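User: Fold this, then the next.

Assistant: Folding the first:
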Amino acid sequence: MTTVDDRLEAQYDNRALVPDHPDIFDRWSREAAAFRKSAMDAARAELNVPYGPHARHVYDYFRADPSAAPAPRTAVFVHGGYWRTFDKSYFSHMAGCLTVRGFDVAVINYRLCPEVRIADIMEDVEMAGASIFRTSGRPLLPYGHSAGGHLVSCLLATDWQRRGLPADLTQAGLVVSGVYDLIPLLKVSVNADLQLTEDAATAASPLFWQPPELTGLAVVAGGAESDAFQDQSRRFHTAWSQSAGRSTLDIVEGANHFTVIDPLADPDSAMAKRLTDLCPIT
């Protein structure tokens, strides 16, 4: 049974910290549905492409605007939800900042806790990345939010040669408001679903891994997030930046844990430009 530390609970309960989160989630759902409809009407979307045997082993694939110069990588967005909630259908519009810039974008689903453990989800996301690469024929540019930020860091550290794939499949990525040290979650109520042990939390914490050699890394957090979430991003950037050719840390003033990703829906936002700059189009 999870023993809750009230101090950590207050720092890591993002829904309690953002009382209007239901309105934000409703807005995401509406904006995502509108983006999907537009992409489907333009024959630039394929929904629920399978990458594995489970019902959640699927992704939506949004093709680039044909008027844009083709990008050399396929982008992959990984949603958050503390590894236990949400669905890709809330986040389709997060592809919008890249499709107009020549990127095909896959928005993926994965299995959720407590049906599976975080280690299983890490495997799901790796399996999705391999499938997307084999389908698109291009290496990947991953980006993700919250639990998705953690999972993108896992993709960046993946030994792709173990799967018989190119070692440089994921050379750069953007992570937003992720959890990179999972040990504090042992004493947070969410662990009733995550079912982390100390060994499992340590093994799943990218902060403690040997940092991969990357060409670029962008780390983002919200200035209105809890101290713990901002500290997660700062510590992760410090640990991994020396192995990245280019690295940035952005604390977005006034943004909470949920509104911090809104700029990804705007092709002209600074965050969208930061993401695009990780994969310059030659």
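Now the next one, as you asked:
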Amino acid sequence: MKKKGFSNRLYWKISATLFTLLLVLGGLYIVITAYVGRQYLEEANQRLYGHIADSTVAVMTPLVQGKVDTQAVQDIMHSTMVINPSVEVYLLDTLGGIITYLAPNKKIKLDRVDLAPVHQFIQNRYGRTIKGDDPRNPEDKKVFSAAPIYHKGRLEGYLYIILASEEQAAVTTPLFGSYILRLGTRSFLVILAIALIIGMVVIWLLTRGLGQITETVRRFKEGDHQARIELKDQGDLTPLADTFNSMADTIMANIRELQSVENLRRELIANVSHDLRTPLAIMQGYIETMMIKEKDLSAEDRRRYLRIMLDSSEKLSRLVAQLFEYAKLEAKQVQVQKEPFFLAELAQDILVKYRVLADKQDISLVLEAPAGLPLVFADVALVERVIQNLLDNALKFTPEGGEVTLCLKEDEKGVEVLISDTGPGIPESEQAFIFERYRRGEAGKNKPAGAGLGLAIVKKILEIHQSAIQLRSAPNQGATFWFRLPAYKAG
């Protein structure tokens, strides 16, 4: 019911707005029609009777040497009134003054007529409607006919004829208004009905899917995250429906990502808590033992306990450093300072540092670096960190008597760095997420599992260098990690 009620209210609101708009447009239509109709009548009147003045002065001369020819004037008045009884006839001097006139009730309010429209009419020759002064109604302008009066080539005055007298206007104006009202009302009602019907149909077609869209949005808001708008027959609302569906898919993808991050965060907290608790517990246990057996401990046992505590402390320091380093990388707070350097020299220096650790574990460290490798362009410290993390990972999972190889190869895009081990390998089921944050593989034999940040740090550092870490591994065949650094191009 909510869906239907909302849709109906919107439909009738839009329909009422359309009806009001049509009423306003209809009123404007009637006003414009009346104005245009009146203009048409005036123009038609002037074009039909505009020649009266010319025809009259062509056959008789009402002014002779500035004096009125009474007989001629009477004849003019008579013939003009016969042709059109509603006219008003005025005889003007050369300056526009009214010499004599024939008008109903013999009452005029002007003694002079502006000659500018008269001259314009004479020159225009009925090209367009021209209005002049109405001596009986100074505030009004009327269409007229005019002609100059000449006697022996000399201008004696003007014959000025108002074509629509006040009496004619008094009769025709109500009739015209009634006609326009009837015509306009009928036309308006017909057009209003047609436009309203068409408009309401169009509005219905445009809004018919809005109720469904509203209901779907409400369901999504209330927790039905699978709610989607059916795109079939939505008309012009299809882009809106498509946008909502796309937005809903994006929101759900973000929710799933946040849930995944939350799960990984919980896993990290569990792993880190375990990794922190173990060395802390060891340190606490040995400290308590030293305090309890302070007088009974031999110097050798004391040194052994202190060594164990130091190892646990170093493990804690490494773990905290890893967490801090990864947090900075993820927050993009690491400033990269790229420079050209020889990768083989860096690899040699790193292996020197790791050789002691490898010898203790009876693991062989091998460097394969052909001569003539080009300079690479990267951040030396960050690349060193990548190689160290990969070597730590390889040594951790390589058994005694095994081998770890650091190989450098040149290709057309730069220098490849490959670190291989002879450990148990990485199961295929773990390879898809081995580089994800907070993830870690199974611990090797007699090897403690770390917090799972080493490879995640490697991935982040290489992403900063627009590179990627790759993995190739199979069960019981070891693992090979490799990445590529771009060659340095001078200039």
